[in-house]
Amino acid sequence: MGAIYRREVGAFFTSGVAYVFLSVFYLLSGYFFYAGVIGSGRTDTSPMFSSMFLIILFLIPILTMRLLSEEKKNKTDQGLLTAPVGLWDIVLGKYFAALTLFIIAESVVFIYSIFLAVLGEVVWTTLLGNYFAMLFLGSAFIAVGLFISSLTENQMASAVASMLALFVLYLFDSFAVNISNEYISKAITSLSFYSRYIEFTQGIFSLPSVVFFLSVAFLFNFFTVRVLDKRRWG
Amino acid sequence: MIEVKNLSKKYGDKQAVKNISFKVEQGEILGFLGPNGAGKSTTMNMLTGYISSTSGQVLVDGVDIFEDPKKAKASIGYLPEIPPLYIDMTIDGYLNFVYDLKKCKLPRKAHLKDVCDLCKITHVKDRIIKNLSKGYRQRVGLAQALINNPPVLILDEPTVGLDPNQIIEIRTLIKKLGKKHTVILSSHILPEIQAVCDRIIIINKGEVAADGTADEIARQLTNEHKMTLRIEGTTKTSADKEEIVKAIKSLKGIKYVRADMERERGIYDYDVEADEKTDIRCSLNALCREKGWNILMLQLSDLTLEDIFLRITMGENDVKLEPNERPRINLKFEESSAEEAEENGGNE
Q1: Which position among B135, B250, B334, B341 has the lowest Cβ density within 10 Å, counted as fewest Cβ atoms?
Q2: Is residue B46 part of a domain?
Q3: B78 touching A, CB under 8 A?
């Protein structure tokens, strides 16, 4: 797993994906930080975090799009799958590489907090709560993106399908509103990434939501392993 | 070292590999020969655990590749048809990655240097793979297969796309490797197989069509023993001719003897054909010793590897020669149609 992880992190930088991802992330989070936090004279970073939901929804597919699709297209998966490593090693190596980049991106909030500390009192509990909420959300999104990347050989298809899938997850709340059956509506809401994430930005650190995001991450990594395994039997 | 039992692979309705069985001993260089689409790559992919088999078993050093894949894969170095190179890395970076991936325990620097030296890529090891020529990429592919010094090497068309010099280099390298490793290599290039391999398996339409050395296969296939002899009699005149023809005719299993031209002064060539089951070479020798004749030349007109290959892969079920037909003559036709068939052949 270590070898694959190190190679993937390196590949993010040599391929330039890391620079695109990080600069867009920094630019937009910087804007939201300015407009939503500093501009409105507050030291609470929650508005920035809630705005970032849609941004990472579109940015994470860029991180995950080539992880497995490119391997298949260039037939480099043959090297991995005939090496003495397990499928979980391959999937998790790639997963954690993407997660590492995401953590590098979102850790920029600690630099923002320095500005806040200069201007006023930072509410560290909400900042950290939001930070981890975004981390959990990112873990789930990356797993979904990685899974979709394992389904295709085409990077663009992988990116677009991932964006679409994450967007549909985002829309779950609006679906739920239109459903009259209370139970179904409740079931759909409970699957909503958005409402669970927004809870955190409102200052509620909800353990079930943490479990939810981590379960989604595990489940989709598991699916990815199954896809790789199934391909051998095709 | 490698044992394959009744291996089959189905892709939907298409049976890519049918019931293949063979064994490779340690230190053997086995050649996989077959036209495009015959199932060579599919078989190799199953041997290395890249794809699963529909049925059958692969044992690498006694370990089943589907039951204990990590252990079995650790003893295999695989060069697929397209080398699995990350083209945006440097050779050095890539080989270090493979070193880590294979959890190699050998001293890193020394081992990587050995591998690079062996594949002659030391002088380019800081270059990015993307910028390398096909030949160098192939060598890097070979280098990654050699990392961790696996006892088994499986090479899928290792010389494809190389120029003649590089082909010779790679062949020499494979021969050298064959002294320490068990090597399986596939190719549809006949001279290559002939030059490098101890044993040949011809695969056609997913089945083992022949297995053995080139000579053995030729014998299995043709069931005939035609040969040209040059025998020096005692008197060195044409009187020898009749005596020799008569004596050979009296041997067991001889179907046909004919004296040919006088090739050297007083010495004649003889075309001899024995029946299917008899190898007359020994009794012929005994005869000549007894009569005080000397065999100056003995040439089997058995098929060459090329003939065999064309016969197996192009021919219908009937592979027997017409009695008086020389195998060489109709070869040209078959050769050109073989090339066409290769070009039209489907993917493996």
Answers
A1: B250
A2: yes
A3: yes
Question: How far is the alpha carbon of B186 from chain A, nearest alpha carbon, in Å?
Answer: 17
Q: Determine, for residues B100 and A2 on separate chains, whether the beta-carbon distance falls below 8 Å.
A: yes
B155 and B264, same domain (yes or no): no
Is there a contact between A222 and A206 (Cβ–Cβ < 8 Å)?
no
Q: What is the ipTM of this complex?
A: 0.89
CB count, 10 Å around CB of A138?
23
Size of interface A-B (CB pairs under 8 A): 75
Whether pLDDT at B103 is above 50: yes
A16 touches chain B (CB under 8 A): no
B286 in contact with A, Cβ within 8 Å: no
Q: Are residues B207 and B172 in the same domain?
A: yes
Give the integer Cα–Cα distance in Å for A151 and A158: 8
* Token output for A170: 């985002």
Q: Pseudo-torsion of CA A186, A189, A195, A196, nearest 10°?
A: 90
- What pLDDT is attached to residue B37? 81
What type of residue is B220? Q
| Residue numbers of A between 71 and 90 with CB closer than 8 Å to B | 74-86
Q: How far apart are CA B294 and CA B231, in angstroms?
A: 6
In a domain, B263, yes or no: yes
pLDDT along chain A (234 residues), means of 10: 92 92 95 89 86 92 93 91 92 96 94 88 87 94 96 93 92 83 85 87 87 95 94 78
**Residue A113: which H helix or E strand, with range?**
helix A108-119
B57 CA: distance to closest CA in chain A (Å): 14
- Residue B282: pLDDT band (50, 70, 90) is confident
Collect all residues of chain B within an 8 Å Cβ-Cβ radius of residue A79: 78, 80, 84-85, 98, 101, 144
- Cβ-proximal residues to A234 (8 Å cutoff; 6+ apart), any chain: B11, B51
Shared domain check, B266 and B202: no
Residue B48 to residue A82, Cβ atoms within 8 A:
yes
Closest CA to A159 of A58, A90, A91: A58
- Look-up of token digits 């290395």: B48
What confidence tens digit (pLDDT) does each residue in B212-240 have? 887 777 766 665 567 888 888 888 777 88
Residues B212 and B268 in one domain: no
Q: Which of A6, A11, A84 is facing B102, going by the closest CB pair?
A: A84
Identify the pLDDT of residue B100.
93
- Residue B248 to residue B287: CA distance in whole angstroms: 8
Closest by Cα among A109, A116, A18 to A62: A18
